Amino acid sequence: MTWLSKSTAALGFVLLTHACYSAHEHSALQSHRAASLSSSSGPTSSLPIDIAIETFVATFVIALGLVLGTSQLRPIQWRVWAGKIEREGESGFTNSSGEVEKDYVGNPFRLLESRPGFVDIRKQRKEFAAWRKETSATA
Amino acid sequence: MSSSLLQPPGQLPPATALKLSEQAPDIYRKQPSGSASALSSLLLTTETQESWTVYENLFLSCLRTGHDETAQQCLLQLVDRFGEDNERIMALKGLFKEAAAVDDVQLEAILREYEQILEGNPTNLPIAKRRAALLRSTGRAVDAVTALTSLLDMSPTDAEAWAELADLYLAQGLYQQAIFAQEEVLVLQPNAWNVHARLGEMLFMAAKTSDAPKRLAEALKRFCRSVELCDDYLRGYYGLKLTTQQLLKEPSGKASKQVESEDWSLPEVSTLQKLDQAATEKLAEIVRRNSAGEKGWQGYDAAEIAAAKELLAANATPTIH
User: Fold this and answer.
1) What would the pLDDT profile of B221-250 be if each residue is shown by its tens digit?
2) ipTM metric
3) Whole-number Å distance between alpha carbons of B240 and B227
4) Distance CA A108, CA A33 (A)
5) By the 8 A CB rule, do B39 and B55 touch?
6) How many angstroms separate the CA atoms of A114 and A107, rounded?
7) CA angle A38, A42, A46 (to 5 degrees)
8) Searching chain A, which residue's CA lies closest to the CA of residue B167?
C-alpha cells in the first residue's frame, strides 16, 4: 500500500464517518421534533440528499484508495509466469516498497534438481573449503 | 538478505553462503526462541511462517561453510521448538552428525543408527532419504540404489526420490533406467519445465551411446515441451538447437528405414530446420538483451548465457566478404 492509496482510503473513511454521523444526527433530530410536537407530526422528511451523496462519494473514494494500493498483478498463464521467473528472477516479484514478496519461491521445481532431502553435506563442505582456499590464495 | 535465507542454501553461490553464515549470530538473535512459556508465546509471538524456514536454511548454510557452533545452536532451537521425535528434526540431527564425522567408522555408526530408526519406524521418510544419501556419499552406489528402490516401494509418489534415483543411474551410465526414473518424476510433476529439459538432456546423452534416432526424436519433443511450458527458457532453446543440429547432420535415409516399423516418427527436414531457426533466433535475442543490461532480462545465470554465446558463435554462418 503506497502512501497515496493509504491517504485516499483514510480520506474516504473520514467522509463516511461524517456522513454516518450526519445521518444519526438527522434521525435524532427527527425523533426529537416528533416527541416535542404533541400533535401528530408532519410527514417525516427523508434523509437529506447531501448526506446520501456524501455516503456514495465516501464509498467510492475508499474503493479508489484500496484499488490504488494493490500490488502488481501476477501473470495467469503458466508459461508467462514461468518465463517471468526464468527471465527476471526475484526482481520481477517485488512489491511496492521494493522488497521481494514473501511468497516468491523462484522456480518451485528446482528442488527436484537440487533435492535438499538428499543433500551430500560432506561433498558440499569439501567444495566450499576448496573454494575458500582458492579465493584466499588468489586474493 | 532475508530472501536468500528463504531459499535452500545448496544453490547459493559460495560467497553468499559465507556472508550468510557470518551474519548468522545477528540473524539468530533477532529470531524468536521457542523456549518461552506457553502463555507468553501465545501473546507476544513474533514467530512467523518463515521463522523456522529461516532457522533451517541458516543451519544448512552454516554446515556448508563450516560454522559448526552456530549450526549447533540453530539445531538446538529447532529441537526445542519441534521436539526430538519430529522426523525432519531427526534427519537434521543426522545431517549434523554426518557433517561432523571425521572418518569412515563414525559414518558407519551413523548409518547403523539410521537403520535402527527405520527398523522401529519404516515410514520415516526423511531418515530413509538420509540413509540413501549417506550410502551414495560413501561411494556405495549399488546399495544406495537398493535403498532408494525400497523407499519408492513404500512411497511411490515422492518425486524427489525418483529424481535422485534418475541421477544415481545416470552417474553409473545406466541410461535406460535413468530415463525411466526421470519419466516417473514427470508423471508426478508434469508441469516442471526444468525436468522436461533435464530428461531431454539425458536422452541426448544416451543417444550418443545407442539407439540414436529414436532417442533424439524423443529429446526433441521434451525440449519443445519445456519451451512450451516456459517462455524464453534458455536451457530449453539451447537443447532444442543442439538436438535439431544433430538430427540434421544424420543422413535421412538411415532414419526413414526405422520409421515405418516403430510407432514413433522423425519430423520432416523442413520442420527441423524451422525449429533450428526459431531456437537460434530466440537464443540470440536472450543473449543480446541480457548483455545489453535490459531490465527484466537479468535473471539468467551468467554461465548459461556464456554457453549460449559459444553455441551461437560456433554455428554462425560465415559471411562472405
Assistant:
1) 999 999 999 999 999 999 999 999 999 987
2) 0.81
3) 9
4) 68
5) no
6) 12
7) 125
8) A113
